[in-house]
Structure of Sporulation domain-containing protein:
Amino acid sequence: MRWLRENWIDALIFAVFAVTVVGIVLFLTGVNPFKTKAPSGVTAPVPIAAPAQGETTAPGVDAEAPAAEEPVTVVPLLPEAPEAAPEEPAGAPPAEPAAATPAAGSAAPAGRTETAPPPAAPAGPETGIFRVSVGAFGNPLNALALAQKLEAQGYAVRLEPVGRVTRVAVGPFTRRGDAVQAAERLADYEPQIYRGDSPEPTQTYLQVGAFKQLASAEATVRALRDQGIGPVVLQYRKPWIKVWVGPVAPEQLAALKRRLVEAGFEVVEVR
């Protein structure tokens, strides 16, 4: 005790130091010597966190309880099925559907005009002279090539001058039905059926050759085109294929005749 009285300051410092060390150890280990143990069978209450600023909690509702999901309303995309028609008695004849009648004052949909169907065109005569036109060409060489191709397939072909072009026609047929069948077989050429014989020229042409061989006519056409003379058309009525230049205006007729003669052609005027 004498030593304690003489060295009490040192003892006090040591005690304070020891308490500090013990407090640090307890703090680091998480041990609370002053905490009282809850009695057996009793669960300690769980603290409820205070609501954040601006939030309110309704009385009797747990703040941490999840909010109830709102019900989802499903909107059907398809219209509801119409009510079933009343059943007809067995053995009754089926009812005819009622004709759709527009309501009074209702207008036709935009872009559509309600009109009565046109009357059927009267049928033409079934017999006579019919031909099928399969093309008209400004270049007579194209008309000549098509004529040669169709003749090789067994068709009777004519070449007809129509203004400045040469028309290729298949026929003649004495019945419209035969012409229709030929047009169906030649559908790739966009055929057109016409009635009557080949028309006679109504304008003036200058004939520069008449041949029985298509190849000879082709050579003459090429010679004219090489010299810049034209337009050139063809008339083919078997066995003769004729090469014509024109149509020619009256004021140009004399000059064109002179030019053709100078080029070595024999010229015959065709009207």
About this structure: Strands lie at 127-137, 157-162, 165-175, 192-195, 205-211, 232-237, 240-245, 268-270. The radius of gyration is 55 Å. The domain at 205-270 is CATH 3.30.70.1070 (Alpha-Beta Plaits). The first helix runs from residue 2 to 6.
